[in-house]
Amino acid sequence: MQAPEEQAMPERNGAELLLDTLTAQNVEMIFGYPGGAVLPLYDAVYRQQFRHILVRHEQGAAHAAEGYAKATGKPGVVFVTSGPGATNAITGIADAMMDSAPIVVFTGQVGTGAIGSDAFQEADVLSMTASITKNNYQVHDVRDLPRIINEAFYVATTGRKGPVLIDLPKDIVNATTNAPLPAAVNLPQYRPTPEIDKRQVAALMAALSQAHKPLLLVGNGVHAAAAQTEVQRFAQRYQVPVVSTLLGLGVMPNASPLFLGMGGMHGVYTANIALSECDLLINVGSRFDDRLATAPQKFAPYATIAHIDIDAAELGKIIPATYPIEGDAKAVLQLMLRSSATKPEVSAWQQQLQQWQAAHPLSYEKGTAEIKPQQVVELVGELTHGDAYVVTDVGQHQMWAAQYYPFKHQHQLITSGGLGTMGFGIPAAIGTKLAAPDKQVVLFIGDGGIQMTSEELEVIAANDLDIKIVLLNNHMLGMVRQWQDLFYDRRRSATVFDHQPNFTKLAEAYGITAHHLTDPQTVAADLAAAFATTHAALIEVAIPELEPVMPMIAPGKPNNEMMERD
Amino acid sequence: MRRVLTCLLSNDPGVLNRFTGTLTRRQVNINSISISPVGDNSASRVTAIVYLDNETTAKQLVAQLNKQIDVLEIHDITDQPHVERELALIRVNAAANKRAELFAMVQPFRADVVDVALDSLMLQITGSRDKVNALLRVVQPYGVTQVVRTGVAGFTRAEG
Ligand SMILES: Cc1ncc(C[n+]2csc(CCOP(=O)(O)OP(=O)(O)O)c2C)c(N)n1
């Protein structure tokens, strides 16, 4: 069929065309930083008054876009200049790739004629980002721009989501055209929604009926598919207990009696024992990463495994599955819910799990002399009624937030899971707050990570973003110190801060109210007071230097060989 | 184990980079790769010979490559009836008194002489990898000074 002739448009340059295409894509804001190669782009931003959040370092732009994307499922958009602008953004792009966050990154590039000549601020961004993007493009004709942008958004937000990069030679954004905005994307080879193998689903449901110790494992894929309701309904109907990965937190409300907690390296005892003891493991949207399946050879040794993933390349990558099901988590769960399979007999299993839970609850030694970080997370959970977006940086505080915050919503935890990127926290919290201005946003961060992207405090201040920054200060690179203490005979190489900036003064320098909490007797009231504002606050909490994250599975040990607290 | 992959890539800049990057990132040892545009030049046909541990990793690799947006098509044809061919150009020393002997030796391989110099010949051979190897073995004693091989190109035989 012949496509109808598309209406020619008024003459505009590539930059304007680009912004018009973004508008048509319902992009409401851009996270970015200007520079020489993107001058035409920023001129169009100025003239169109496109909403632009000026970060203070390009890494921040990429993480903010991730925060925006992780909180909403909508794509985050980044503008950076060529060369150093692009290389600064790379950490965030890699992070988005690992955690399947949909972001679209526009990088400036030197003019087409200068590419390859080592021109000023030239970097081969296409090569550098090939392995950390779902796809990347360099535009060679201004008329291709709308098509490429639409493709990029489509690819970023469908299938297994992820980052897409578009490299823009300067002359391309300057060139004018009256090319129309194309409608549909034409990528016949790209099939983001695979046909679900119904026989495999039926076989899985038959196996479920026969199981005695079934277990559901939920990961980030459930958020990506917005399948929280389906997971809950399925777990409820078949009375299947649920374990989550770090990124799967929030799928099952912590308060649900069916929820055993996070599994893996710092997971809850019962969650890990359940992974080891179950006879049928249904993994929905997690990739058996080594922080969960700490010893793949010994993982779930008694279980028949079902693996539901939209990315065929994940099936069998780490753990072979008897029932590999390629498909969107929501669609597969809907099929599973339509089954009339009989319920398995699970009462003995449930009893067993309850006994483990009673004998090995998640716990810490409550301090009277010092404020315990776990207690801080619990108190923040109460203060925010378990409703806040919880953003974290990377380290011990991240694990305490994961263990002790009472999650209940999908997309609620915004954290760097796969790449484990220190410096993620502040910019990701910015993106989260901008995406959900009416929601409370709490950031848990360590004294190491805060120093990696503290420049973004200025963005919080300048935009008056109500983000509560809870800085758990142990004067250490705590997580690394913990490993040194456990596995390197307490040789604390380069992990102890003998000198630290004054963090409250740092926050105040940006115009952010700061508190310093040191008294365990008043910590609850002090936190409440610090939270009682609709503006940002930095709440520095002095915590014990040597508090460990427990339980812990040593790397390479199976899930049932946990260290617990003494 | 040796696997033969045949693949259609969109003919855009950076695509081959992404393709080989996917292989190297998964620590796949590429034995040979041949690539050339086909049809209206909008796509390139690739034949890649790789060595992998087992069939599971082969399936994995195909799935990983298939994920690439620019991979229009990919098949592991190892276990299907298929044809593999390679072309090699071989420069071999050939003093006047050795020529007749050389000609006789390469004849069964149906190699062509495509360049003749005072003291050397350039041979062209097409065929399976084994056949090329065999010819190389035969002419080695005369002194091979230069070899270029295209890498294997192949696809499946028609059914029936
Ligand atoms: C960019 C980056 N560099 C290094 C690391 C390694 N690393 C993981 S956790 C950690 C310590 C983090 O210390 P801090 O921010 O103080 O948090 P804590 O563990 O004390 O809560 C380090 C250095 C990392 N994850 N990311």
What's the CATH class of the largest domain in chain B, please? Alpha Beta
The profile of the biggest β sheet of chain B is:
5 strands, antiparallel
CATH superfamily of the largest domain in chain B: ACT domain
- Per CATH, the architecture of the largest domain in chain B is 2-Layer Sandwich
Strand order of the largest sheet of chain A: 3-2-4-5-7-6
Give the biggest beta sheet of chain A.
Answer: 6 strands, parallel
Shape, per Cα inertia axes of chain B: elongated
User: Mean pLDDT across all residues of chain A, rounded?
Assistant: 96
Estimate the mean pLDDT confidence of chain B: 94
Reported CATH architecture of the largest domain in chain A = 3-Layer(aba) Sandwich
* Helical stretch tally of chain B: 4
Q: At the first level of CATH, what is the class of the largest domain in chain A?
A: Alpha Beta
The chain pair forming the largest interface, with residue counts per chain, is: A-B, 21 and 20 residues
Strands, helices and their partners?
The complex is a heterodimer of chains A (566) and B (160).
Chain A: E1 12-13, H1 14-24, E2 30-32, H2 39-48, E3 52-54, H3 58-72, E4 76-80, H4 84-98, E5 103-109, H5 125-129, E6 135-138, H6 145-157, E7 164-169, H7 170-174, E8 176-177, H8 198-210, E9 214-218, H9 220-224, H10 228-238, E10 242-244, E11 259-262, H11 269-277, E12 280-284, E13 304-309, E14 323-326, H12 329-338, H13 347-359, H14 373-383, E15 389-392, H15 396-404, E16 413-414, H16 425-435, E17 441-446, H17 457-462, E18 467-473, H18 478-487, H19 503-509, E19 513-517, H20 523-531, E20 537-542, E21 552-553, E22 562-563
Parallel strand pairs in A: 2-3, 2-4, 4-5, 5-7, 6-7, 9-10, 9-12, 10-11, 12-13, 13-14, 15-16, 15-17, 17-18, 18-20, 19-20
Antiparallel strand pairs in A: 1-8, 21-22
Chain B: E1 2-10, H1 15-25, E2 29-38, E3 43-51, H2 55-67, E4 71-76, E5 82-93, H3 99-106, E6 112-116, E7 120-127, H4 129-139, E8 144-149, E9 153-156
Bound molecules: thiamine diphosphate (TPP).
